[in-house]
Amino acid sequence: MPPNAQTARVPAVFLHGLTGSGACWIPLVRGLEDVLDAVTPDARGHGAADAPPEGVRYDDLADDVLTLMRERGLELPLLVGHSMGGMTAALVAARHPTLVSALVLIDPTFLSAERQQAVYESDAAEQHRRAVAAGRSALAADLRARHPHRSQEIIELLADARMHCRSSAFDILTPPTPDYLALVRGFRAPTLLVIAEGGVIPSETAAEIQRCNSIVEVACIENAGHGIPFDQPNRLAEIMRAFLRSHA
């Protein structure tokens, strides 16, 4: 953390996952607003951001983060990324290790080649098109039915985000994605990897990541799936707060 971390809020960039938006971070950021000065951008093809016709790649998303940091004058920010945003944050931190103060990766898309191909060949994009075509009310009702433990606020934020996610954003699923172990080896800033019982990163992969770079700390959250920030925002905030304190 920067030298003034104990007396001022730490600048932080929060990067959302596929079909999300910057607004989806609101419940988590609210619980950390006394320690973090958060910026929550929309990724390409999401929210209010442009959707280039040729689709999206991780290099594009990483470049966008660097541009944001430069334009906002963000010096040594904390990077927080969930899912797709986690891979993006990892790419920035590995390629530009002197530009970030710390890293929080929340169940990032660190997938094997076989899993990448399976996701790419799935009907995820078609499911999204059908969900959007059904309309916002139906989409929100489906989210409530599938995730009854999530707050109404989060359901509404996720429904809005899904409605504003363009189909071209799913181009990010095109394999191969960056080699996550190679990225991990390039980390130089304190790093927290947050996984969940029902997430995409199993404990074996988390252990492999730690063997690649001992700077990585791992926290596992119970009673959560891949959508950790939505399933357990309060618990995630507690874990992040402890991480920040330990590296202040």
- Assign the CATH class: Alpha Beta
Termini separation: 5 Å
Strand content: 15-25%
Total number of distinct structural domains: 1
- Would you tell me the structural class of the helices and strands? alpha/beta
Radius of gyration: 17 Å
Specify the CATH architecture: 3-Layer(aba) Sandwich
Note down, in words, how this protein is organized.
There is one protein chain. The longest helix is centred in the N-terminal third of the chain and has 15 residues, at 58-72. Strand 5, helix 9 and strand 6 (216-225) form a beta-alpha-beta unit. This protein has one domain: Rossmann fold. It has a six-stranded parallel sheet with strand order 2-1-3-4-5-6, with helices on both faces. The chain contains eleven helices and six strands. It has helices at 26-30, 58-72, 84-95, 113-121, 124-134, 136-146, 152-163, 180-185, 203-212, 228-231, 233-246; strands spanning 10-15, 36-39, 78-82, 102-106, 191-198, 216-225. It has 248 residues and is of the alpha/beta class.
